[in-house]
Design a protein that fits this description.
With 462 residues, the chain is an alpha+beta fold. It is built from 10 helices and 22 strands. It folds into 3 domains: 135 residues, START domain (Alpha-D-Glucose-1,6-Bisphosphate, Chain A, domain 4, 2-Layer Sandwich); 160 residues, Alpha-D-Glucose-1,6-Bisphosphate, Chain A, domain 4; 155 residues, START domain (Alpha-D-Glucose-1,6-Bisphosphate, Chain A, domain 4), CATH 3.30.530. The longest helix has 26 residues. InterPro entries: ASHA1/2-like_C, START-like_dom_sf.
Length: 462
């Protein structure tokens, strides 16, 4: 980062520089699309006429409107406007994007009249640029759709290298070892068997070690089966580089190929593609730790509803059910859950197995490292199960059989929040106090969904 605060004539100028692992086309969207500009800019963009001379109308938290006029617009390269503020005068903002390997460099300049708040303005922009980075990151999320009952993750990356060079990086086992999650032993032909190994654990679960080449068309298409999923790489020339389209078709069954597993698959492939691009560019990939994985997994979960609970009707009545994919082994999840006390049948429920939106009765069943069940006042019960997750980790399944008078949307929202906090805690991010605003937001969301489903059911009955 090369940030600066300086005087330019009679004005102040703030200059910021950031590198993003996204092509200019994606970062451009955060600057010029109203919804995305509003996500990070200090004011809400309520109207936006994207052309030179076009007007942007902003509104602050107090409802005061500020307008700006676009003065420069070169798609994917430069964007500038002058913002007019009655209190502080004219502000000239300019954004320039320069391609940099598979990503780009953003230079932002903010010039304004002599102002004693220049340093505070700089600090405010630092926070805004952090949010801009997070907004741009959303565009790097893999797309998720369902085809024939199977989840399909799709990614697209522009690489500043000819298709022939990228082809070697995705098909030569010596090169895939640098970025692919497993070592590959195979032959360059369709129909060739494949063998995957995973470091010290050469054969986790047996079937995760075998596959088959399905398509091999240099330097265009490479596809193969890995256990019960299918991976496909397609390269299309683009100027002096190429566009890589990658898809991962999951099996749609089992804990390694259903929708909840996308919470780990998505960030995993993002990281792999990031390392692939860096290796092609001859640079080191950015360091990524557990906090990065947590943030990206939470984005996938939120974007695609991977952690949403459901309301079922069974012989026992209404049951709220959640299922979460966790990368930690059951022993570690159990340890985090029991830090508030080890559950014992006939005794009170440890705090981390419950939440403040219900009144727990005593523990009724304990299966160490596997399950805990307890009653709820005045009636109902909760069961938390830790099942094995393929190929590694834990599949957490929570069911809450509701009291007939209980409000389903509140139960769904509270457990949803509870499991979000647990997911974060497992990655070392302990969040306190309980986020009431998040629970309220989720309650509104579930109430709307349940109302829509009820209306649809009534329509079917008619």
């Amino acid at each position: 980062m090369n940030d600066a605060v300086r005087r330019v004539g009679e004005d102040w100028e703030l200059r910021f520089e950031r590198r993003y692992p996204h092509p200019p086309e994606k970062v451009w969207r955060t600057l010029t699309e109203r919804e995305h500009l509003s996500a990070w800019y200090p004011f809400l963009a309520v109207e936006m006429d994207v052309r030179v001379g076009g007007i942007i109308r902003f509104r602050d938290e107090q409802g005061t409107e500020v307008h700006a006029e676009i003065t420069e617009l070169v798609p994917h390269r430069s964007f500038a406007f002058t913002e007019f503020d009655e209190a502080t005068g004219a502000h000239r903002l300019r954004f320039r994007l320069t391609p940099d390997g598979g990503g780009c460099v953003l230079v932002m300049e903010h010039a304004f009249a002599d102002n004693p708040w220049a340093e505070r303005t700089q600090q405010g922009w630092l926070g805004c640029l952090d949010v801009l980075a997070a907004t741009a990151d959303r565009f790097a999320l893999g797309g998720l759709e369902t085809v024939g009952g199977r989840p399909v993750l799709r990614f697209e990356r522009r690489l500043a290298h000819a298709p022939e060079r990228v082809w070697r990086a995705i098909t030569d086992p010596a090169e895939t070892a640098r970025w692919f999650p497993a070592s590959i032993d195979t032959e360059p032909r369709a129909g060739a068997p494949m063998r995957f190994s995973f470091g010290d654990d050469a054969d986790p679960g047996g079937r995760f070690a075998e596959g088959e080449v399905l398509e091999y068309d240099p330097p265009k298409v490479y596809a193969f089966r890995w256990a019960r999923s299918v991976l496909r790489f397609e390269l299309v020339p683009d100027g002096d580089g190429c566009v890589l389209s990658f898809s991962h078709t999951l099996s749609g069954t089992g804990t390694s190929g259903d929708r909840p597993s996308v919470a780990r698959q998505g960030p995993g492939w993002e990281r792999g593609l990031e390392v692939l691009a860096a290796g092609l560019d001859g640079r080191d990939a950015p360091e990524r730790d557990g906090r990065w994985f947590l943030a990206r997994a939470e984005q996938y979960v939120e974007e695609y509803g991977l952690a949403d609970g459901e309301l079922r009707t069974t012989g026992d009545g209404r049951v709220v059910r959640f299922e979460r994919d966790l990368v930690q082994p059951p022993e570690e999840v159990w340890r985090v859950l029991t830090e508030g006390g080890v559950p014992v049948a006939g005794e009170p429920v440890p705090v981390r197995f419950t939440h403040g939106h219900l009144e727990p009765a005593e523990v009724t069943t304990v299966e160490p490292v596997c399950a805990v069940e307890y009653g709820v006042v005045p009636s109902g019960r909760v069961r938390v199960e830790l099942r094995d997750q393929e190929p590694v980790g834990t599949r957490l399944v929570l069911t809450h059989t509701l009291d007939p008078a209980a409000e389903a949307e509140t139960a769904l929202a509270a457990w949803h929040t509870h499991l979000e906090l647990l997911f974060a805690a497992l990655h070392g991010d302990v969040r306190c106090p309980w986020p009431d605003a998040r629970t309220a937001e989720l309650r509104r969301r579930y109430a709307e969904r349940l109302g829509t489903e009820a209306a649809a059911t009534a329509g079917d009955d008619r």
